[in-house]
Design goal:
The chain has about 190 residues and is mainly alpha-helical. The protein contains six helices and three strands. α2 runs parallel beside α3 and α2 packs across α6.
């Protein structure tokens, strides 16, 4: 497995590019999809023609953003992957409490997957309420929802594309292949 890991990592590349290289190796062939950095805001853009690749754009050079956007892609079904940004709404920073709770309801699944990806890459993980100017919001209910979803994934299994990516990251970053639910601690999720 070490030989495989050495083939997938770009020597000396920043962490986000190493993560993108693993994603591309997993999905550029059969899903015609690549993970791209350098964006001002995350965005999914389906391919415009048969010869092009779908693009999952993450923020700047942020490894966490790369993992998060990969999680969204791993959840999106075939029909959603044909739509710009999967056809989802996005309410920008400054959401009120009702908007924030809806955001959190939608975000618990991708953030739970992001947690598995972060562990596979040997990185720490914290939930992100992504609402810095929205006032004082208690992140505990969201952390609990992410923790519950992660435990559900641990017992039922990750979606197939998510599991493929998680295992590839674990190989490349020399982390355990098996999911250990005892590592999924609610106390680790809060900022």
């Amino acid at each position: 497995m070490i030989e495989l890991a050495e083939q997938w990592v770009i020597d000396g590349a920043p962490l986000d590019r190493q993560i993108a290289a693993v994603f591309d190796r997993c999905f550029a062939g059969d899903y015609r999809t690549q993970l791209c950095g350098g964006a001002e805001e995350p965005l999914y853009v389906p391919a415009g023609s048969q010869g092009e690749l779908h693009a999952v754009w993450y923020r700047e050079d942020f490894a966490r953003s790369a993992l998060h956007e990969a999680a969204h892609w791993c959840i999106a079904g075939d029909a959603r992957r044909q739509l710009d940004d999967y056809g989802y709404w996005y309410e920008p920073d400054g959401r009120n409490e009702v908007q924030q709770r809806e955001f959190e309801r939608v975000e618990s699944r991708p953030q739970a997957l992001e947690w598995f990806f972060a562990m596979a890459a040997g990185l720490p993980f914290r939930v992100s309420i992504d609402n810095l100017s929205g006032g004082d919001i208690d992140d505990f209910p969201f952390a609990l929802a992410v923790w519950q979803r992660a435990h559900r994934y641990a017992s039922e299994g990750l979606p197939p594309r998510a599991e493929r990516f998680r295992r590839a990251l674990a190989v490349v970053f020399c982390q355990p292949l098996a999911i250990d639910p005892s590592r999924l601690l609610l106390t680790d999720l809060r900022s």
